[in-house]
Every structure is written in structure tokens, then in C-alpha cells.
Amino acid sequence: MSYDLKITGGTIVDGSGKPGFVGDVGVKDGRIVALGKAEGPATSTIDATGKAVSPGFVDVHTHYDAQILWDRMLSISPWHGVTTTVIGNCGFGVAPTRAAHRKLIMQTLEKVEGMSLEALEAGLGTAWPFETFPQYLDALERQGSAINVAALFGHTPLRLYVMGEESTERAATQDEVGTMKKLVREAMDAGAIGFGTSVSVSHNGYAGKPVPSRQATVEEMDALVSVMGELKRGLMQITIGRDFSTRHMAEVSRKYGVPVTWTALLSHLYGPGGHRKQLDLAAEQRRSGAIVIPQVSCRPLNFEFTFAEPFIFDVMKFMNELAVADAKEPGTRRRAYADPAWREKLRSEVTPLFRNWWDRVVIAWAPSARELEEQPLAAAAARLGKDPVDLALDLALANDLQARFRMAVMNFDEQEVAELITDPNTIIALSDAGAHASQLCDACYSTHLLGHWVREKKTLTLEQAVHQLTQRPAEMFGITDRGLLAEGRPADIVVFDPATVAPGPLKRVFDLPAGADRLVSEASGIDAVIVNGTLVRRDGKDAVAANDRLPGRLLRHGRAA
């Protein structure tokens, strides 16, 4: 047999968790046609001797819903071996959206997902090629992408579409819930793989208002999930909060036979050691017949923030009230930050709530005091004879509220993180690729897992880590034709060097529309990334151009048509 592409001599780690073995992979017409031995000529050959050959990684928690419309390459995910991505997480997205609500949707993404409003406006333009969710999927399919995309149907645009701005204020009526159920069915029929939502107290949208999904009752959630029960397919993804607990998740999972995955179970989220109670609960729910899977992260949750938009403090009522007041009367923030009484309130409120977070703050960027950059805030404040809160706010005011601070919010206890990523009832995810672009970059989680937790810490074997990056997330999200190297499967393949694979240091670039900035990380040790048989990355560089016919497929119902 002749092949379009042959990968020879590598250690094949097929994604199942089984031990790897040395062999070849033969690819023809976008599919794997030989595995183990691939005798015969090939148009192109990759020598993978000493390297690992695995399925392309499946990133199930991204926010590329808007970015994909101007960035068909979906950078930076393929840099780190990702060949399939899931959008629509946390109930956010850009469809369905009426023309009159486009600005509100963009402002919501700006506030809750840290996206630049200027970049959204420039990237999406004024003539959106869709209104409904089926039209949105059609638009994605027409334009194509470098990697595969599956989509969740988002609760926030759904509620705004049906209820208008009242969606941020009140519960839905019975008729409105009925309309939403019809639109969920329409989305599922069009190819959505499930339903995404959020009840997180930190998720506030435009003008500081709760995102629409936070106003949904338990009865509304139940009704919308029931559609997937009737169809006998799909999953629910939810960002957790008090109003729809893991108990409610277990109830709808058992009632409708629908898997539920929630974000996020992080080290120190429930206090030191508190994660174990949640792991025990997940195991108990599984034994009861419910499938409720917490999503966990393998990286410290580092946020870069400014006091112009201090997203991470939005869980505090007085900070959210300040955001609302500043939206009505610009300059309110600055006056508050300069007020000694307000500073004392921030000091007294933050310290007990955030468990000494100020000790983990680093001054990332401060043009008025470049000598302090990359220094711990507490240490710099001690040298200057200041309180850390005063120094942070002084720097913010001196730099037009644009000074940046980096904070290890959660997941900084490696022993606890190790327990989270090795538990059989969790799923490794939470890259947030496409969101919080100027604040964090965890789209490199796959190379961090392979470099840090496999090679350096030896917490996972190579086979276990690849399984967690491929078959496990694909199966959890109902993506049925990805995540495994097998004859007849689509040829989504990564060739990487286990001895060198790692994410590079974060760097700030200004390549978003309107010149907006974002943090990126380049990868080392990723030799080749192949999507549906087409080489898209080779030796750290794109092997296709954004204006080429790109190989990624829209995975309607979890598989390519």
C-alpha cells in the first residue's frame, strides 16, 4: 500500500492508556490505515525515532466562540498539540444573538471572560453572518479552521435572545422556558454536543449585572436538560455556584441519563484539604448512578489583572457595586482607590476571604516603577515601608489603572493538585483558551502536563497522561471519532519528544484585532501536529497558512460528517 503520510519508528501511545509500543503509522485520505507496520512508499515521511506518537489532544474547555471568526488557526492551541477543541463553555457564546443585542453580548464577554471589547468589535465587525445557533454552526463550517471544533449551546445568549435585557433581572416565565426548550432542541438537532451554563457568583456581565444564566431557577435548568434526556445524547457543562449545586447536578444526571461536568475543582477552592470532600462526593455520586465529573487543572491558576477591571475580585459584593457605579459614573473607581477608608475596606475584606492572596501577588508591569516589575508585591512593599494594598493601588493610580499584577489564585499546592489530576472521577481541562487573554494563558496545559507531571514529577505515566489528554475527554464529551489512534479513525496525530516537551515562558504580544494584547506560550518538544491527515504544525512553525483550505472539521453531534 502507498500512503499520503507515514510516521516511522516512534513509540505509539494510542490514547487508551495501554503501554506504548514502537511502530509506524500510515495515513491515507485523512485516515489511519496502518498502525504498527506501514510497509510501502509514502508521499511524505516523518521519522519519529525516539519520539512519542499519540492522538491529537482534545481540549474540552475553551472560549474560542468569537475568536474563531477572525482566527481560523485557533492559535495557540495547535502549538501545544491540540487538534480538537470544545467551545460554548460556561454558557457563553455569540449565538443566538439578535442584531440589537450584539453589543451586550460583546460587553458580557469583555467582563466575564476578560476579552478586549475593542478586539471583539474589530474582529466580529458589524455584519455577523448568523443570528441563530444553527446559522452560527453553518458559518463555522463554511469558513473552516485549522483544528476540529465541537460546540456547546450557551445558556447566556439563549436567555438574552428569548427574554431580552430582562434576562439579567428575573426568572423566566413558563412560556419563555418553553421557547428556550425549543431552541435547545434546535441547537442539538443542528449539531451541538450539549448545553453549557453558569451560576457562578463571579460571573457578572455588562454593567456589572449577573450573567443571564445566573437568574435561571432550578426548574428552568431541569427543563432545558430534559431535552437532552429526550434525545438520549448530549451533556451538561456548568460553572458551579450556590443556586445549582452538585446535588442538583446528580439529580438531573440520574433523571435524564445525562453526564454533567462542572468547573472547577481547584486546590484551596474549599480551603486546605477541602478538595478531598468533593472527590469523595464525586465517587459517591458515581456509585449512585449519576455521572457528575469535576474538571480540574494541572497548572497553578495565575491571573494577571489590572484595577481597571479586577475580574478576580468580582465575587466580593462591594467590588461588584463599585463596577456598577463606575459604569454609570466613570471615575468612581479612581476616587475609591485613592480613599484611605475604601483601602481599609479592601484590606479587611480580602485578607480573610482570599487567605493571604496578597502574599502571592507579583508586580507584572508598572511603567512608573519599572524597578519593581516581577517582584513580589509584599516584599516590595516591605522595602518601601508600605502596606501591600497601598502599594498596589498607588501603582494602579500612577499608571492610569493599567499596571498589571499576577496572582496565584488557586492550584498552587502541588500535593493537592497531584491528588486532583490522578483521581478517577475527574477530568483534566480548564485551559480557558480564547478567554482572559491578557490575564492568563493556560492553553499550554497539555505540554505542562507532559513536561511537569510526567517527566519531572513522575506523578503520571506517559500513557496515563496521553489518555487524560485524548480518549478520556473525548468520551466524556461525546466526541466519538477522536481521541484514539486506530485503523479507520481520522488521522489526528501529535509527534512529540517526551524528553523536552514543555510550555515556554509567557510573553505578551499585541496580535489581536485592534492591536489588543494577549499572553502566549510557545511549546518545545512538539515535532508535528496532524489534523485529518494534514500537517498543520512542524518543528514549532505553522505548516499551513490561514488563507489555505484548512483541515479542521466541525464535529456536529460529536463527529465529522
Secondary-structure topology with pairs:
Blueprint: E1 3-12, E2 21-28, E3 31-36, E4 42-47, E5 52-55, E6 57-59, E7 82-87, H1 102-113, H2 117-124, H3 133-143, E8 148-154, H4 155-163, H5 174-190, E9 194-198, H6 218-231, E10 235-239, H7 246-256, E11 260-263, H8 275-287, E12 292-296, E13 301-305, H9 317-328, H10 332-338, H11 340-354, E14 361-365, E15 375-376, H12 377-384, H13 388-398, E16 404-410, H14 414-422, E17 427-428, H15 445-456, H16 462-469, H17 471-476, E18 493-496, E19 502-503, E20 507-509, E21 518-520, E22 523-524, E23 526-531, E24 534-538, E25 541-542
Parallel strand pairs: 1-4, 1-5, 6-7, 7-8, 8-9, 9-10, 10-11, 11-12, 12-17
Antiparallel strand pairs: 1-2, 2-3, 5-18, 13-16, 14-15, 14-16, 18-23, 19-22, 20-21, 23-24, 24-25
Question: What summary fits the major beta sheet?
Answer: 9 strands, mixed
- The percent of residues in helical segments reads 25-40%
Question: What overall form do the CA principal axes indicate?
Answer: globular
Beta-strand residue fraction: 15-25%
By oligomeric state, this entry counts as: single chain
Secondary structure: number of strands = 25
Uncertain runs are none
Distance between the termini: 26 Å
H/I helix tally: 17
Provide the residue-averaged pLDDT. 95
Structural class: alpha/beta
Query: Rg to the nearest angstrom?
Result: 23 Å
